[in-house]
Known about the structure:
Layout: H1 2-10, E1 14-18, H2 21-34, E2 43-49, H3 60-70, E3 75-81, H4 83-92, E4 104-109, H5 113-142, H6 167-171, H7 173-183, H8 186-201, H9 211-231, H10 238-244, H11 266-269, H12 276-279, H13 282-289, H14 295-309, H15 324-348, H16 360-363
Parallel strand pairs: 2-3
Antiparallel strand pairs: 1-2, 1-4
Amino acid sequence: MIRKQLTQSLQPLLVLYLGSLATTTLRRNLSAVENNATDFRFCCELLVVLPADAPLHGDRQGLRTLEARLSAHASVRLLLRTPEGLAQELSTGRHPRISLHSHAIVLYERDHTLEQIVQQVQAAADAAKARRSAGLHRSARDEGGEARSDAGAPGPDAGLLPVGLSAEERADPLSVVRSFYRAYDLPEVRSRIGMWLQAVVSSPSWPVAETGLHLDFYLSVCRLLTSGWLLRGCAPPAWVTQELAGPSGAGMPPQRLYCPHEGADAWAYFPAHLSRVEFGSPGQVLAGLFTDRPLSWWLTELYDLFSYSLTDGTPAEAGEERDLAATGHQLHRLAEACHLLAVWARRAGEQPSAAGQLSAAVAAQPIPVASVL
């Protein structure tokens, strides 16, 4: 009924049923029905693609009125896009939960709209790759054949402003990292990541009494991840590089470089998921985290894992193939790389170099501090 009413009233080009928000909400309400509750209600989020000249674009009141009419069948949230707007959004990853990696069901399509949008996204990616390649060739010619690093080249997250960070935090992302490790030390972070992933694949889900603490940790990890994206490629402080190249050579790094407290159990803070080379270059570890998967993909993944951890449903039951072992491994690498940066900053009051950070002009742009929920 929802699809029929939408197609008749809007004549859309494409309607996408976004997961896993709808799935987990339905599951949560289903459990209430099984407990003889009477408030069962289907909830979903639909992305509707309309022609650019559709009158509903910009008509917020009209959109809310349509959602109210659909409420007779379900609780529906509508997101409107033009074909060009959706293609641009997919290319830049500006929306943390709408990307080529997002789970979605095609409820309606006409005129091969989805195929055309994907082709536009691929064409934009190819053009960006060609521009980066041309820039590197020009750099090589200008510098006598020595190509410069392309760390500042635009990637899948180009144009994406980090949601949830203030302008001051975007200009100084290391402050967010240090604040995170004042609230959670590394052993606790490891423990919470393990419990989180266990709740995703098991039933019952996360204990209700601890939901507030779990929510706070989820949001904190999203902020840490975003700060790590800003710090990707940063160079270590010179004094750290000198210590690692000192008498210890290829042996164990000095405890003061990874253990934040005198007298603490040093092994509990040792970054076991990083190699010796990576220990000295946590900025490169962060850069590798976003090589194949952009920030928007990671924020979507964390949102989905958080949703699953609060319900009795599992990704396998929903027909989703997720490599949770690999995801957990990468989250531990994120935590350990950021832990090292926090320890080094605390030890010497130094910050990593500005390589890999946003420009001051972009960092100063005001955006609302919003939840990634």
